[in-house]
C-alpha cells in the first residue's frame, strides 16, 4: 500500500487561497495519475481534480474549474492543488489519491489521510 502524506489545509476567508500538497516516497509515483477529492460534512466524497502521470492532461469538477489548479512534480514525488477564490462551499476534508486517470473513487487505489479546508464567509 502506497502512503500519501498530505499537508497545507487550514482556515481561510472567502476569496482567499490555499495550496494543498501530497507527497510519497513510492518510486512508482511517476507511473500513476493523481487526483483530489473532497468530502463535506453530511455529503458524499466528490471528485475535484485529476492529472495524468505525465501532466499532459488535467480534468476538473465544474464547481472548481477556473479557480483550482492541479499540478505535479515527478522529480519531487509531489502533487499540488492550488485553490484560489475560495468559497464557503469549498469547506471540506480534501483527499489526494493515486491511481488511474479518472473521476471515480474506484479509479484510485491509494489515498492520503485527508486535510481539513475551512472557508469562512
Mean pLDDT: 97
Q: Count of helices?
A: 0
Order of helices and strands: EEEEEEEEEEE
Compute the CA-based radius of gyration: 13 Å
The outline comes out as globular
**Portion in helices:** under 10%
- Tell me the number of strands: 11
User: In this structure, how is the largest beta sheet organized?
Assistant: 7 strands, mixed
Strand percentage: over 45%
Q: What structural category do the secondary elements indicate?
A: mainly beta
> Are there runs of 5+ residues with pLDDT below 50, and where?
none
Oligomer state of the chains in this structure: single chain
For the termini, the CA-CA separation is 39 Å
List the helices and strands and how they pair.
Blueprint lengths: L4 E3 L2 E4 L4 E6 L9 E7 L6 E6 L6 E3 L7 E6 L4 E6 L8 E8 L8 E4 L3 E6 L1
Parallel strand pairs: 2-11
Antiparallel strand pairs: 1-3, 3-8, 4-5, 4-9, 5-6, 7-8, 9-10, 9-11
Question: Can you describe what's shown?
Answer:
It is a single chain. By secondary structure, this protein is mostly beta strands. The chain has strands at residues 5-7, 10-13, 18-23, 33-39, 46-51, 58-60, 68-73, 78-83, 92-99, 108-111, 115-120. Strands 2, 4, 5, 6, 9, 10 and 11 form a 7-stranded mixed sheet that branches. Strand 7 (68-73) and strand 8 form a beta hairpin. The termini are far apart.
Amino acid at each position: 500500500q502506497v502512503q500519501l502524506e498530505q499537508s497545507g489545509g487550514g482556515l481561510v476567508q472567502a476569496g482567499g487561497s490555499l495550496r494543498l500538497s501530497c507527497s510519497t516516497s513510492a518510486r512508482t509515483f511517476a507511473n500513476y495519475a493523481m487526483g483530489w477529492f473532497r468530502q463535506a460534512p453530511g455529503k458524499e466524497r466528490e471528485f475535484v481534480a485529476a492529472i495524468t502521470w505525465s501532466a499532459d492532461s488535467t480534468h476538473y469538477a465544474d464547481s472548481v474549474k477556473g479557480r483550482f489548479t492541479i499540478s505535479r512534480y515527478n522529480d519531487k514525488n509531489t502533487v499540488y492543488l492550488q485553490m484560489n477564490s475560495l468559497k464557503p462551499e469549498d469547506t471540506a476534508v480534501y483527499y489526494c489519491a493515486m491511481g488511474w486517470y479518472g473521476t471515480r473513487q474506484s479509479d484510485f487505489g491509494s489515498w492520503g489521510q485527508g486535510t481539513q479546508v475551512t472557508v469562512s464567509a
